[in-house]
Sequence to fold (327 residues):
Amino acid sequence: MKAPVRVAVTGAAGQIGYALLFRIAAGDMLGKDQPVILHLLEITPALDALKGVVMELNDCAFPLLADIVATDDANVAFKDADYALLVGARPRGAGMERKDLLEANGKIFGPQGKALNDHAKRDVKVLVVGNPANTNALIAQQNAPDLDPKCFTAMVRLDHNRAMSQLAEKTGKHNTDIKKMIIWGNHSSTQYPDLHHVTVDGKNAMELVDQAWYEGEFIPTVQQRGAAIIKARGASSAASAASAAIDHMRSWALGTDEGDWVSMGIPSDGSYGIEPGVIYGYPVTCKDGKYEIVQGLEINDFSRARMDATAKELHEERSAVEGLFAK
Ligand code: NAD
Ligand code: LMR
Fold:
């Protein structure tokens, strides 16, 4: 049996936390041969609720769950963390854009970035789920000067999975027939789900759908799916968000499949003309615990305009939060 790794989860008593922790403990994220020690962070008023979650985790008698640390202190939660899933933040309500949460949520991520900087493993893999995820990840990164900036990522995998499911339905295929989906940019309504490089059963997706459906239905449906779920459920997505977080971390830790890639929000390095300084959704392959941007994809004018629009929004969000960066 492998030695246990430490997985920190913030907002552990929240909706997503409740859908996430049991799957991590069951081995869905890091494999059925990888024991885990869960480090659960909550705000002080939620510690009682967290106690109940810990009781339930224990009651599952998971073979892979080696220990649980439950705390309201980020310095304890991130101590020696190998993985950190930053979920704890307010969800939006109906009629809000995710960036409307920046003021309420942005200030959570500076101190957590600093605590990661001071206490986590030097190769910690950080996934920010709390919205607005890309810019919150940037805030955390900018407060962790001693960690590699590439340790900080944001979740666009839910959008990636939503796009797969929409295309599978349209083409009458199963999502396992679909490869090379891309979500460029921000986890927001400017995100650009790009079908130009996608294959369905080996055929190019753009040859199977018409431009009117692509522009008029597919793109807006994926961009607005979070809002549609809030409207239908009266609360934001939770189980699908948790599942996407598991997928993101599993791909990063265990690698992507041969002949396919996934979408991750990662620090822009200038690839595809995206100015550095933001956390941008890119197609990546992962191997040996590292991600790499897929290079050399042809970008047409339609895609270029949308990729630039979502980059512009991220740079605007950055300008709004620069006061939260460590000096
Ligand atoms: P929730 O309100 O059910 O749970 C959030 C939890 O975070 C609460 O228990 C709260 O006490 C805790 N929390 C708040 N501040 C904290 C802090 N400083 N440290 C630790 N814990 C803290 O919300 P939820 O439905 O679980 O959603 C959490 C976040 O995830 C929201 O911001 C939501 O918008 C976002 N989200 C992102 C995606 C994505 O694709 N990136 C998808 C779904 C939801
Ligand atoms: C989602 O995409 O479901 C989440 O980001 C929640 C939201 O606010 O839409």
